[in-house]
Amino acid sequence: MTFLYPSVLWGLGLLLIPILIHLFSFRRVVTVIFPSISFMEELKNETGNRRNLKHLLILCSRLLFMFFIVIAFAQPIVTDHLSPVDGTVIYIDNSRSMSGEVAAGQIGLNKALELSDDLVSRAAIDAKFQILTNHSPVALSWLSKEGALDKLAQVSLSDDPKSFPQIMQRASALSRTVSFFYLSDFQKSTIGSIEAPKEMDWQINLIKIPVDNVSNIYVDTAYMEVANIHDEQKNISVVLKNSGNKDRRAIQLKLISEQQLISTSSVDIKAGSKSVVILSFDEGYIKEGQMKMELVDYPVYFDNIFHMSLPAAKVNNIVHIHPTEDFTRAVEKVYGNETYFEYVRFKEEAVDYGKLQLADFVILDGFENIPQSFDAYKEHNDFLIIPPKDIQTASYQRFLSRSVYQVKDSLAIGLNIKDLNDPFFAGVFNTKEPDMGLPKAKRNLEVKGRVNVLVQNEFEKPYLGSIENNNHYIYFFASPLTKEFTNVTNHATFLPLMYKMSMAGNRYMHPLYYDLSKDYLSIATRDFDPSKKLRVLNGATEWIPNYQYVEGKLMLELPPFGLKAGHYEIINGNVLIKRMALNESRVESEMEGYTHSELAELDAKSQNIHWINVESTQNLSVNEGFADSTEDLFKIALILSLFFVLSEALLIRFL
Predict the structure, then answer these.
(1) What is the dihedral of CA 532, 533, 534, 538, to 10 degrees?
(2) Same topology for domains 87-201+595-622 and 217-310, yes or no?
(3) What is the pLDDT of residue 350?
(4) Was domain 315-503 assigned CATH 3.40.250.10?
(5) CA 57 to chain centre
(6) Considering only CA atoms, which of 244, 255, 256, 258 is closest in space to residue 297?
């Protein structure tokens, strides 16, 4: 047994007072003269023995009364079954899910802090503590009661949830013998499995905070709908999920840019299910590509905002190369649209290889013999080959890495799409009819082997195909784009086909958002200069990242903590590389937690795990979890003290 307030035991010294009173009589002796009476000596002995017994019983009653009064106020605690500990570790789950309410006006984190504050306040004066949270560093020294209370006052919500194995690993840095308290809502998606470490002989006290998180709607993901060429508006598909156990109706979803409402929708979602909402918007209203989605959802609100960055639709660099003065002017008309393309044209002898190296899409137009100097760019660029009337098949075979034959179709034959469900054609047509009324063409080359045929003639011979090479594409037509061979350039499908060839393989269109829970971000860019400083900005916040740049991919290392969800700009020197949106992981939005029965089952199975039902008690105690046994011993000591003071009164009155 031990005491919460051992200093009170100094009061046991007061037991000397009744002993001294008993030993020394301070009453003056009065002599009474009376005549001699026989048998006086015998009477004296008899009454003296009775009086001594009475005095001893009264003394014992007084001593026991004072003893149990002192013991009661020293707060006795039975500790026979507990192992000696170095201190008490209080781990408070301050993840965002603890922002849910436990009562009107009180969130789960505040309830956990209230219980922790009570635990520390009721501890012995010389008790040692350590306060840990999800993002606080592990200190290797213990705190006094005052230090622990000060640290509790600094705890706030964090966006860095931890699993139970991670929690135990952090706490074990202090000592192998501690009293451990974990206060949490026990969200399954973040805490994972709960098991006591085998190498630690701890008493792990689990305290579930009853946060009201039974219903939550959140954005699971969002992605751009493939825009049809003829569409003026863009579409974003938003996947909403209801992670609670209640059906929800009329959930409002808003698309906002710079405080301006761009699009809105309302949706009903059943419990435990997902729903896809498509928001249409005019790209012109999106300021600097920055936008966010807002949900109107209560009581869980920490995941109601979802940031996005609109990817740029423009292909950065299109290079058109031709060997002679003649070139396909229809190509120039398509890619000369500055709204979507940055286009430059070179004759073969005047090629700017610096721009060629940075090109996203290269058009080789009218080459009888494809120069071997272009082979090195196949690993980094997408190509389109428009052949002339006569070709040197050996150069084409080398460049395409396929068997190439020159053919001579005598008649123009009707063309059709081989497979309208091919991802290449997504957004090109707004009909799925098999006969698109495509034009006619004569072929003068044929490519054999592994080729993805996009357009073929009526005899199923490829006219427009593609070859994948190291995650890049080489497209080719089977004839020149002149009137002698085809009328395809005058057909309505020519523009979308050319558009898709330049855009479908574009690896430099970044996603709508990135996840802050990842260790690295992969940013595709061709504009990076490693000799210049790289910064990431979010308003006044500046982050200098660790990075690696390899073949058009910039790998940024995310810091372990400190970054917040929002919009960021990647600056290389004074050049804006990308705008990107960062969001917190959606793992905390899954609100299912361990139930009381599941925690009670863990308690029954493990000797080291003790579940404390916060709803059936009020106060924490360092040694026993909640203070049930402490209060019981206090009451027993108090009752015994009252019993002995009553015994003293009865002895004085009747004995």
Answers:
(1) -130
(2) no
(3) 92
(4) no
(5) 71
(6) 244
